[in-house]
Amino acid sequence: MDLIDKIPVKISFQSTECKVELVRILAPRTVEALVGALPFNSKAFLWKEEIYFETPVTMGPEKSRSTVQTGDVAYWPPGKAFCIFYGKSQPYSPVNVIGRVVTDLDALKKVRQGEWVKVSLL
Asked: CATH top-level class for 6-121?
């Protein structure tokens, strides 16, 4: 895998779906571990304008940041969680930014607490 690889991933919720690109150079170990765990299912939780869900991956901080841009996707080490920032939210604590949402962010406003989510390679 080249260091600048972008890995296309589909995230399917009960109410909508989105596509994200995981960017290996942002947090190589975290991205590699998540891709290796695909596909997996989880349950969605909401916090402000963020959707997050537990992953089967346990990683520590890697180039972690306490601020993100709208559309960023990240891994939150304390919760072993995949986070999608679709609005003005900032992380509760530092996250490993791992990529970006490449589809319409407005569709993510439909997601409700407790929805099932499936994460898979495109």
From this structure: mainly beta
